[in-house]
Amino acid sequence: MLKARHLLGLAAAAALTGCGQSGPLYLPDSPAAAQRATLPQTLNPASAALAATPQTAPRAEPATEQ
Questions:
Q1: What angle do CA 40, 26, 29 make, to 5 degrees?
Q2: Which residues in 19-57 are b (16+ Cβ under 10 Å) and which e?
């Protein structure tokens, strides 16, 4: 039982430390940040390649009255 309490205490302490991250959260807006991969691109590189290719939508012709 004593080991379980120690283990639970260590797990709680580890969870509360937040992996050492401190300071306010912010979204970088520098030009270099625009070239970095996003989380979805990191997790699924195949979909990132599809998103990187520009998709051209068919142009709609304006309707003309006759």
A1: 75
A2: eeeeeeeeeeeeeeeeeeeeeeeeeeeeeeeeeeeeeee
Distance between CA atoms of residues 54 and 66, nearest Å: 36
- List the one residue out of 27, 47, 46 whose CA is nearest residue 36: 27
pTM: 0.29
pLDDT in tens, 25-36: 788 888 888 888
Phi-psi region of 18 (alpha: psi -120 to 50; beta: other; left: phi over 0): left
